[in-house]
Records
---
Amino acid sequence: MNTGLARLAVVTTVLTTTACTVIPRPEPPRVMSLAGVPSQATFDQALPVNIRVVTPLASDPVDSSSILIKPTPYEFLVYKKARWRDSSPVVIRDHLAQHLRNSQGFRNIVVDTSAATTGLTLLTELSAFHVDQKSNEYQVTLQLHAELTGNRSSESLCINNWAIEEPSAGADLDSAVEAFSRAGNLLAYELTEWLWSCVQQAQ
């Protein structure tokens, strides 16, 4: 009886070991982010305001870490073995917040994870953040609705919309992320100028 149990244990161990070596380990996904630009001041003087940048509202599949491509008007696909470093709304939020800080146009810029007190809030909705495929041409589409509100009155001070289309050199991941980065930088520059003008007029 003991001999039979011992043999069964040996066979089980061999099978378990063999199974572990046969099943390949999946490759870790490439983790991507938007490339920023060198820090530089856009304004000579900072406006005396503190602004909270809230994570954009979004729905699936934009509200995910998937890098999306849209080969038809009706279907989303994802880049395999790759993802954004966080969900797309968080990536956009951090990108905008960094540009706003680099501009030195505001006393302080915080995001919605901060407990700091602010007088103004930047609310946004991210409705598109993907690669569009039209025949053999590719472009990144980024659509954002923005609204600046006063925290005391909840009044809307300024509202604006962006619909950015940035050509991509190809459908491959590296070309797509480069186009995503250019689109994100264009959005950040234009939103920063708009926000500064809005705050200045509201004072």
---
Amino acid sequence: MPSILLVRHGQASYGADDYDVLSETGWRQAEVLAAEHARRGLRFDVVVSGGLQRQRGTAEVLARAGGTPVEIDPGWNEYDADDVLTHHAQTAVRLDAEPGTAGPSVSSRDFQALLDGALIAWIEAGDAGGAREAWPAFDARVRGAPERLVARLGSGETALVCSSGGVIGAVCAALMGMAPTGLVVFNRVAINTGVARLVSGRQGVTLVSFNEHGHLDGLEPSLRTYR
């Protein structure tokens, strides 16, 4: 049966001028996962990435060993966290560094708490929230991406997808029959370069596992990151 490995991108650059750039740690995480794939002899029939820089960079590292070209599908793009915060949170905190500062105004953990509340409000607001991409549009986009991919995979083929915690969380929550706010639960614990496994069979697509990160075990603790 066809299968999909959903990989969360490597660590981005929280608090830097441009969040959407892999950090040094993020590149290292991608290389470690690529090495693990090579060790296990994994080969991918299709490699897909969202269009964001952090997603593409991770995908390119993972695709390099197998020589499979990376296809870009914006359906796998993450929600716009800053836009969600603008419309659904009473805070000036954003992913990128504030102009004229040398870093973030809050810790990554505190930022996650602010974002969790904003995401729940965004989801509950539906079409009335005011964000450029309302929850129903995001939900439809994220449901469509794996459907398109599964439809093109043959029996026994495997696709690798590089996306983000919110997208992967939304996919997993839907497959588990959870309420849409289940996205927040998955998103909060998603480890950079963690892997979720989906299989497609007669009963549809099934979530087999979430957040696999054994490739990081036994390495320096700094490689296990959540943002």
---
Amino acid sequence: MNENTLQELEAAGIDVTAGINRFLGDDSIYLSFLLRFPQEESFGQLESAIQQSKWQEATEYAHALKGLCGNLGLNKLFQICSDMVTAGRNGEEMQIAALYQDVRAEYETICSVLNGKGNS
């Protein structure tokens, strides 16, 4: 991974160093997984569950997305998803819906950055 790419990803709030460490120091494998993040299905499933007011399913998809974000060093999205999972486990449906807006905004930001990297 070149230094410019690393700096751009870190400037976008991605903890590249932690992510690479989770991939046993192999930055090329990490980057390949990171660049596939926008195609991962958990966000779309979460969005669909929210739109249908299926709160238990939304909690499960938020949990799946949280795990993926943790592995890839997407710390801000990880924390928001973690909060959403907690709200879901506590039956706080309005809080899940409110946090979804934050999840969506951060997800779109990350995907915008990563889609730019995948095209370069």
---
Amino acid sequence: MEGQLRYDLVVLGSGPAGRRAAVQAAKLGKSVLVVDNRDRVGGVSVHTGTIPSKTLRETALNLSGWRERGFYGRAYRVKRDISGADLAMRLDKTLTHEIEVLEHQFARNGVQTLVGAGRFLDPHRIAISAPGGERVVEAGRILIAVGTQPFRPDSIPFDGRSIVDSDEFIANPRVPRSLTVIGAGVIGLEYATVFAAMDVPVTLVEPRRQLLEFIDQEVVEHLVYQLRDSGMRLLLGTELDRIVPSSEGPVCHLADGRQLRSEMVLYTAGRQGATAPLDLARCGLEADPRGRLRVDPATYQTDIGHIYAAGDVIGFPSLAATSMEQGRAAACHAFCAPLPKAGSHFPIGIYAVPELSSAGLSEEAAREQGLAYECGVARFRETSRGQIMGMDSGMLKLIFAMPSRKLLGVHIVGEGATELVHIGQAVIELGGTIDYFIDNSFNYPTLAEAYKIASLDAWNRIRHCSAEVVEIGPRAIRQ
């Protein structure tokens, strides 16, 4: 980038939203600069978020033998003593691969990158504090995609070792003898269940009385039963008062008077947009108290027309998959290219142990909207593949509209949930009905066969709702 001072697009952040926007703009023939304050590209997703946490999960499941315990019992282990070094080795290998793929993608599309911290000088100029000195660049369009960072209240005595946030843990992974997780959102739940799979005694503290309120609650109840059955201690509806460090391990004092001592406390009670260093006031923008930016949900423009924002920094749903599409849409709008048609029902994936995934309406949402519906449920143990895999838990739930029989929602908890959900997502987006699952063949034996089982379960209820002939595909079934 030597000598170049103006770009068609400057992207602040190289996570999922930033990378997709940069490549899309480059393919439209625009000059693009990506600025990131880390030594290598990838953003939060690659360095401290999505990729590291999912790599940690896979490492834990493989080394612990968790997937085989249905056959060999809960005492089964692949590796008796799992260490922080085991976790770090796989993390390093996976992250290096991800970064190299991204660097190659930028290079072949002509996207320039610069390591440094960017801040606004005015609505079009950005100062970049780089290792070689400060540079100032001008941008026709700007995308803010700096992601988020852990929320760190001043009252929590973080020390980077025994009282940590999720970023600090990834920087120095280890396996504690006992763990208390504060906050049972997606991140807290994922880390708590991963360590529980490695047989670490885990206590999960959450002030709300319900877990994952945006997920179908029947599926969540199935998860909660599994967690408690595995030995995890769940303290729902419980407030944290304070954490007191000690030589024997930090002590969490709860508002109800109870005290929890563990070797490590992982604080995961929320994240905030990493916008504080950007000097947003100089470009006319203002973040909310959690550092997030307001955008037009169709174009991802901020209140300043040529400045866009995408990814976790704009809030819900804060998923890598949706962030990528937001970044691409922002780049298309910025340079007057046709906007991609976004699907109405993006999938949610929660990589706990076991996984949860959903698309479409939950039963609670269908009820709130006053829709007539019927549900069908399949247990993974009812499938031959489930038996082959030794699965004694896991379920798939389908919600169908009545009387149209269109699929409204799919909700899954269990091994492979985040892969299986896309079948239901496609059927929802295409306006498919229960007929698809009943009339079509599924590979056998597969977990996907649960779609047919759940559909037949729903049909057994639907057919008793009316004495009239109900058409299912080419057949007619009369009571």
